[in-house]
Amino acid sequence: MDIYVKIKGITDAGGNSSEGVKVSLGEGACIRDLLKALEESFGEKFTELVYAEGSRELKKNRRFLLNGRDIVFLDGMETSLRDGDRFAVITQMSGGQKIRVNVFCLET
Questions:
Q1: Cα(105)–Cα(108) distance, integer angstroms
Q2: pLDDT above 70: residue 107
Q3: Domain layout of the chain by residue ranges
């Protein structure tokens, strides 16, 4: 079965299409199998992007989406895959300018 994968900075490097890459896996594969195949294809750069340092746990500041749904709300790493699924890794961003707000409450 073919899974279509998009990971900013990984699958779009080296002239790959903005559509990402196609990964072929055997029937009955799950997210864990897909991540292993991606690690074999993209090496250390992928490992550093996805896994917490020194562990096989997924980084907390990343969202792992299967067909637009976070795998946290599915079966996590054991989520089953089907032919044609779309998988993406999104980096959460935060920050910006701090704004101070003063609130006054007047009693009447």
A1: 10
A2: no
A3: 2-91
